[in-house]
Amino acid sequence: MLRSAILAAARSNRVERLVETAPVSRNIVRRFIAGEQADEALQRTRELAADGLAVTIDYLGEDTTNPHQAEATRDEYLKLLDALHAAELTPAAEVSLKLSALGQVFDEKVALEHARAICAKASEAGTTVTLDAEDHTTTDSTLDVLAQLRAEFPTTGAVVQSYLRRTEADCRELAVEGSRVRLCKGAYKEPESVAYQTRLDVDKSYVRCLNVLMSGGGYPMIATHDPRLVAIGEDRAKWFDRSPDEFEFQMLYGVRPDEQLRLARAGYTVRVYLPYGTQWYAYMMRRLAERPANLGFLARALRSRG
Ligand SMILES: Cc1cc2nc3c(=O)[nH]c(=O)nc-3n(C[C@H](O)[C@H](O)[C@H](O)COP(=O)(O)OP(=O)(O)OC[C@H]3O[C@@H](n4cnc5c(N)ncnc54)[C@H](O)[C@@H]3O)c2cc1C
After folding, report:
1. 113 pocket-lining for ligand 1 (C-beta < 6 Å)
2. Which of 182, 236, 271, 287 is catalytic?
3. Are 241 and 268 in contact (CB under 8 A)?
4. Is the model's pTM score more than 0.90?
5. pLDDT tens by residue, 71-114
């Protein structure tokens, strides 16, 4: 119930204005986001890399409805990749991108062209790109764009969400040689017709998908903070005889940082998802929906605005 209400607020312009201008917002945002500018993302990347962590950087923004904004997002990624390369932070850092920020909502071909330019730049910079998964209405289009990008840039990463009923079948398709696949639970509000609704069903699906990916030919990226699923990931690696360079764990910046370091020190590759940019509202609200303990922030933000 609470999670649904917060995820609905994530799409409300009115709540967005209230939260963005509330004085308490800045502190909590700082915990989950590198900063508003690329140089702050670069600095955080340097620090994480010095701690032995890999990084995937996300330039915040989604659901772009105008072509100029889509072009501006593409250009920001191109500049970011040049800067990462110049700072010798590739290949430890790759980028994650949302096709909806590149115009998928109004023209899939435009989004594909922009994504292609970003993949080409990433390849020049010696790194790669992962396409984030968004709400279920975009899944077919995103997997279709992924297939086209992979024809030229085979290391382009996919993301699948275990809350979707279709995902186990998608994992079977994606678990092939060279295929990088991030498995997460899923962060959007989805109807029962397409998505499991209980935590238990989502977790059971996660384990089934994990089994498919770990037993297949691809490179699984286990994205979760859930201690039980991390332990199952470690167990499956042993079971399927995968060495630490044949899969990785991924976690979000600011979430369970001690666990990130513990896993890295145990010899695993751990990649931190590091967002930056001014459009942090929707991302932030999805993090709050996952962790009701953080809700005091939202209540204070709304109360302080009346
Ligand atoms: C690297 C990465 C990339 C992602 N990319 C996408 C994407 O492209 N598309 C998408 O829809 N979603 C994405 N997500 C979000 C994902 O779908 C989930 O919404 C999010 O990760 C929360 O699920 P969880 O697996 O961490 O478990 P949850 O069910 O949220 O939490 C399970 C347990 O983990 C522990 N835990 C969780 N958070 C904390 C915390 N802050 N402190 C301490 N313990 C905690 C607690 O024990 C909790 O009970 C991504 C997540 C990660 C980590």
Report:
1. no
2. 182
3. no
4. yes
5. 999 999 999 999 999 999 999 999 999 999 999 999 999 999 99
